[in-house]
Structure formats: structure tokens, C-alpha cells
Inverse folding.
């Protein structure tokens, strides 16, 4: 996730520079880059959580004594994934947003 966030911020440095020159705040730039990642994470969770629940239930049925899986486990996993995404994307986006826009636009 950190590598993908770094690559995205690096490839969009010109766009970030133009947005900063036009008056965008750091929060707006972080929101711009973070929105795409949260959309990808939501798609991944929408596909992965039901498959994970089905797989765990299918695996546990093979045992004579098995336990039930709580919904809190999946809520915790969702929170952990969203938290890691926000931290890594937020760090890379904020770092790219705090760069001097003159340096990024001068090289063009």
C-alpha cells in the first residue's frame, strides 16, 4: 500500500503543483489522493469479507467442535485496513502536498 501510494503521489506531482498554485490546501490534496484509495479498499472489502466469512465457516465445519465467528472480527479487520490505508496514503499525500510547487513545475 505504501509503494502504491508513493507511486501515485510521484506520478501526480505536476497536478499537485498546479493545484497548489491555484490555491488548494494540503487537506484538499490529501483528500483528492485518498479518495481513490478508499474506493479501491471498499471494493476489496466488499469482495473479500464475504469470501473470507464463507471460507472460515467452511473450514470450521470440518471439525467436530467448532466455534462461531463474531462479526466484530470482520469489523476490526475493516478498521485496520482502512487505518493502514489512511496512514500510508495520508503520509505520502501530505509529503507531496508540502513540496514547493515551483520545483515540481519548473522541470516541465
Amino acid at each position: 500500500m505504501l509503494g502504491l501510494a508513493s507511486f501515485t503521489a510521484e506520478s501526480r506531482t505536476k497536478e499537485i503543483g498546479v493545484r497548489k498554485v491555484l490555491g488548494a490546501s494540503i487537506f484538499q490534496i490529501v483528500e483528492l489522493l485518498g479518495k481513490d484509495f478508499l474506493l479501491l479498499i471498499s471494493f476489496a472489502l466488499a469482495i473479500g469479507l464475504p469470501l473470507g466469512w464463507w471460507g472460515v465457516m467452511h473450514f470450521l465445519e470440518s471439525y467436530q467442535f467448532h466455534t462461531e465467528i463474531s462479526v466484530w472480527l470482520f469489523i476490526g479487520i475493516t478498521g485496520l485496513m482502512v487505518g493502514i490505508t489512511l496512514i500510508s496514503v495520508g503520509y505520502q499525500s501530505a509529503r507531496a502536498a508540502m513540496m514547493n510547487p515551483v520545483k515540481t513545475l519548473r522541470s516541465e
In short: The longest helix spans residues 26-60. The chain has a mean pLDDT of 87. Helices lie at 2-11, 13-21, 26-60, 71-97, 101-106.
